[in-house]
Amino acid sequence: MRILTRPSRWTKSVEALILALAICFTVGATNSSARFNNLNHRLMCTCGCAELLGECNHVGCTASTKENAELRAAIAAGETDQQIFAAFTAEYGATVLAAPPTHGFDLVAWIAPFAVFAAALLGTILLIRRWGGRTDGKTPLPAGPDPAGLDPEERARRERIRRETNIGSGIDGGF
Q: What are residue 98's phi and psi, to 5 degrees?
């Protein structure tokens, strides 16, 4: 039985990594400026620019100025993120949220694009299989007129066309 008297390098490395992660996560949690930046990038500006609240680039945009002031006041009042989103949704409507909620009927906004893509992919695969199934050797391809039943003049003309275009000779003309 081996007794550990001093920690190994691996143990020290793991402890240092855990400490660094703990510090990183706690710094962002207490900084109201970081929280403000996080929240205003999760809300939309209501001036009609279709920009995130934190990214609205209109000079003198009164909507973003007002919303940012409301957001700062809510953070200073100690409201939670959910309370802030609920207040903004009640005042401006659900379009103020940059991403739709992930519960209830709003979950359709997350599922629908993937479902439509999957249905289109499935439809395309089935269509390609159906098209590919027509030339599987079971379905005969339509044949042209029988050259034996043609008059000699027509047979000579077809043979001249075949020679000039290299059809049937294995040479595809570089295409």
A: -70, -30
Distance (Å, whole) CA 157 – CA 151: 10
Q: What is the mean pLDDT of residues 126-154?
A: 69
Regarding predicted confidence, which is higher, 125 or 3? 125
Residue 26, pLDDT score: 61
d(CA 70, CA 59): 19
* Cα–Cα separations (whole angstroms), residue 84 to 43, 89, 96, 97: 10, 9, 11, 11
d(CA 124, CA 30): 51
Residue by residue, DSSP assigns 153-166 as: HHHHHHHHHHHHHT
Q: What is the pLDDT of residue 74?
A: 93
Nearest-angstrom CA–CA distance, 169 and 175: 14
41 φ/ψ angles, rounded to the nearest 5 degrees: -95, 0
What CATH code is assigned to 10-99?
A: 1.10.8.640
User: How do the domains of the chain map onto residue ranges?
Assistant: 10-99, 102-137
Which band of pLDDT confidence, cut at 50, 70 and 90, is reported for residue 4? Answer: low
For the segment 150-160, the average pLDDT, to the nearest whole number, is: 86
